[in-house]
Structure prediction request, 221 residues.
Amino acid sequence: MKNFKKIFNNSKIKIILILAFLLFIYTTICAISYADYISNDIADSVFRLHVIANSDSSEDQNLKYKVRDSLLEYMNSICADCQNKEEAIALVNANKAQFREIALNTIHNKGYNYDVKINIGNFEFPTKTYGDISLPAGNYDALRVEIGEAKGQNWWCVMFPPLCFVDVSSGIVPDESKEVLEDNLSDEEFALVSDNSNTEIKFKFKLLEFFNKTGLITAKK
Prediction:
């Protein structure tokens, strides 16, 4: 303890410790600010789909995917020419009743009588990977579809840009979808979500994940 006091009483060491502490605080603030800015900017560029099954039974889970497929097919038909998230949300909002009708028809055609709730809002999403594109955890604008009691597992994807249509065999997002995403993000942001080989980019994405998971920042509208 005496040796420790001697070391701390040394003015040079005290200055070094104080400077090191201040540098740590400064670096942490910069990292949080960076992660917050990037996360929010990415969230501002995508519109997501969130489908919740009635239950976790295999039948209800299979039904969830049928509803998903029907909604994505319709979404793709009306939003094919959308250039940004705002256009996509406006179209979905204008056709919200049609989305619900499509979901209900799919459910009834499969022999079920579940009700469907459709909401457009800002919801929390975990870190998700779509083919060779990864999006950090956070709050994103999304179309939420709740089937029946909505007590089953979730299914997430990105309606705009249309990252839902991933080639399962290759795990690669179509070039057209990536081009739209690239047009709506800065060069660094696009690199963060699409580059899986660059060590620096990997570190920055892990930084986003760390601050999101710890709750210090979260991507939001």
Notes: The beta strands are 47-52, 116-125, 128-130, 133-135, 138-147, 154-160.
